[in-house]
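Note to self: keep these together.
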Amino acid sequence: MAPEFKALTTRVTSGSPYQLDQSQTLKASSALLKHISSESDRKAAASSTKNILRAATDTSDQNDVLDVEPVWLSLTTKKHIVDKRRLKPGKIPLPHSLNQSSTTIICLISCDPQRQVKDSIAHPSFPTDLSSRITKVIGLSKLKARYQSFESRRQLLNDHDVFLADDRVITMLPKVLGKIFYQSPKKPVPVSLEPYRQITTSGKRVTHKATDEKTKTIAPPLQVAKEIEKTINCALVHLSPSNNTSVRVGYSSFTAQQIADNVEAVVAGLVEKFIPQGWRNIRAVNIKGPNTMALPIWLADELWVDEADVLEKEEERAKGLTSVARQGGKKRKERAVDVVADGGEGRAPKRARGGLASNGERKRKRRVEDTDLSTEMRERREKLREQKKLDKAEIQGWEKGKEKSAITA
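Structure:
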């Protein structure tokens, strides 16, 4: 009896196939949170020691629980997104912030002089709930002078939960902070502390110039607070030269609907800002915990990005003949070298003189293998052509339906 195959993901009933199915996203989020909760309870029951800190922790905030695990969105592409690793992370706004806890400790790295930023945060118009979480403001020059040793940098890293840095100094921090920061999940996040540029009546933007060349202008307190709030409420995207990108979209203390909302926002942001060729370059979208299997949300039907990536029958055959001819030329050269090395013009080495029957058997065996390979490739090409026809018909049907709805509207 043949085994029954079930689809791992569901398609949307209407519209373009290049979009997430909300029911599939919510279903995967619920299953993942349920598995994380059951595993946590199982480990707690199997443990012989009681976690006193967990029992004594106030769970009024979502992220205050000690054993909360992060939930990651894993996106796999067909081609590499970038050519080199980027130390400056990208930002995607989230409907449900990852830093909602009132106990989150923030360190702000500013440009020189740091006194302007401190005065802006201490201003009466600055929100008190945000200023209470910013426990340290340090300029670039003092950061270089005070934190030169490895131990001091590690202590700074352990004392804070989130590190924000002025956009104008973010590129100087890798040499100052070192690998202890940039190999951890607490990489400094860029925040804009520069005043907004005013637009004149003629349409030109006017920049604020400082009186001293060494000093930098700082935005008003309300603008600084707005930019910091917007930054800490974003998901961070760290790009590297690979075909896989992971983004934290929530915690195990979130609800399934909150995880699903964040997943949809992050996927939309990645497709719009970071992934070249958009949905055509996406191969799979999954969510997972730190110690769980990846649950699929969306899977691509085709493995290619452009139609030019798929070779037709004649092109593939010509390419195969060219490669076979090159291999044959290499083998003849190797045999000629062996004959000369054996010590005579008309004298062939034992390997080549071992018998014509062995060479004939090898040729017949090679023909059989080539025939089997060509049959397999032919079947694969037919399947790919059928899949391409189905995809084109589906996209054309969706576009026609969209045009009809636009005409009727």
